[in-house]
Amino acid sequence: QVQLIESGGGSVQAGGSLRLSCVASGRAWSRYSMGWFRHVPGLAREFVAAISRSGGTTYYADSVKGRFTISRDNAKNTVSLQMNTLKPEDTAVYYCAGKSTILSYAPRQASEFADWGQGTQVTVSS
Q1: DSSP 74
Q2: Residue 24 pLDDT more than 90?
Q3: SS3 22
Q4: Cα radius of gyration (the chain)
Q5: Which residues of 73-108 are buried (b: 16+ CB within 10 A; e: fewer)?
Q6: Can you name the residues that pair with 97 across neighbouring β-strands?
Q7: pLDDT tens digits, residue range 87-103?
Q8: CA-to-CA dists, residue 41 to 45, 63, 92, angstroms
């Protein structure tokens, strides 16, 4: 099990950028694939992006493809989400999540992830 702490949320105008970071603690980090999800009250939690343990496999939701980039620094126990060209519909609470997996696998379903951060608010104004 790992503990996950997100940072980097905030308010930005449409077209702007934000970079979210998620720092993991715990010895299991090296076995973890990571993902980012977002949640708007009243809606289901939405998959945003995922990255495998090695960083060699990434997945993105169609709604963010080409605008968001997920990356990880295993030496710093950190996974990041660079968000560019933000839109008002990107407004949500963003969560990072982790799961112990095989090397090249990256889960995309929220139900597959075992550990979650507390979330960070992203607000994009028009």
Answers
A1: G
A2: yes
A3: strand
A4: 13
A5: eeeebbbbbbbeebeeebbbbbbbbbbebeeeebbb
A6: 35, 116
A7: 999 999 999 999 998 88
A8: 9, 18, 8
